[in-house]
Amino acid sequence: MPPVAAGHYVISVSGGPMERWGEGGQRREGGAAWQERLTGVTSLQAKGGDPVAPDRVVRSGSALVFLFPKGERPFSMDDKEVVFSTRLGPMQIKAKFPLKDMVYDGRLEL
Torsions phi, psi of 38, nearest 5? Predict the structure, then answer.
């Protein structure tokens, strides 16, 4: 794992032109504005838990990489599932991650 990802949950979104879109479906060329907007509309949340916002969003080729701080209470098997949610222009994206599928060598690796 790259050093920048240490202490973070990392989710990559790829497969479309979504990194080119800004709020309201308007094209956006770059700068810090797109990062600020994305951190405001993106979360990672366990059922019954508080949503966690990314503290960094990075473009990597045609992908967007979201880095969520693990914080004081990292996710555990008791959470059963976490939900990633973001809005990229006109698209709402949600993905559910069952934590039982993220166990490696007896440990939750996410």
Answer: -65, -40
